[in-house]
Design brief:
The chain is mainly α. It has one domain. It has 5 helices and no strands. Helix 2 runs antiparallel to helix 3 and helix 3 packs antiparallel against helix 5. The longest helix has 29 residues. The N and C termini lie far apart (36 Å).
C-alpha cells in the first residue's frame, strides 16, 4: 500500500529526504557518544529512517479509520500532540532493540 493512500500529504521525496537526514544526523551526532562508532551510528540512523515513517503512517491510518482529523485539542489543525511525536511510537522501542543487538547498553 502506498503511503499516499494512507496519508495524502506524504511524498516519496519527503520519505527519502527524511531517511538521508536521519542517517546523516545520526552519524554526525551519535557517533560522538561512547561506545558508538560511525558504522553503528549509521545503522541506527537507517533503523530510525525506516521505523519513524511507520509510526507516522500507523497513526495516520488510525485517524483515517476513526474519521477524525486531530487526535487532540492542544494543536488544532496540526493533528494534535500525537501528530508531533507519532514517529517516536516505533523509534523508541527500535532504539532499545538496536542498543541491545549492538551490545551498547
Amino acid at each position: 500500500m502506498s503511503p499516499r493512500c494512507i496519508s495524502p500529504n506524504k511524498s516519496w521525496e519527503g520519505l527519502i529526504g527524511g531517511a538521508i537526514a536521519a542517517v546523516l544526523v545520526s552519524v554526525i551526532v551519535v557517533h560522538f557518544i561512547h561506545p558508538w562508532t560511525v558504522g553503528k551510528a549509521a545503522l541506527f540512523g537507517l533503523v530510525v529512517a525506516v521505523v519513524a515513517p511507520l509510526g507516522d503512517l500507523s497513526q495516520s491510518m488510525i485517524k483515517r479509520q476513526l474519521g477524525i482529523k486531530d487526535m487532540g485539542r492542544i494543536l488544532p489543525g496540526h493533528g494534535g500532540i500525537l501528530d508531533r511525536v507519532d514517529g517516536l511510537l516505533f523509534v523508541v522501542p527500535a532504539t532499545y532493540f538496536v542498543v541491545k543487538a549492538l551490545h551498547l547498553g
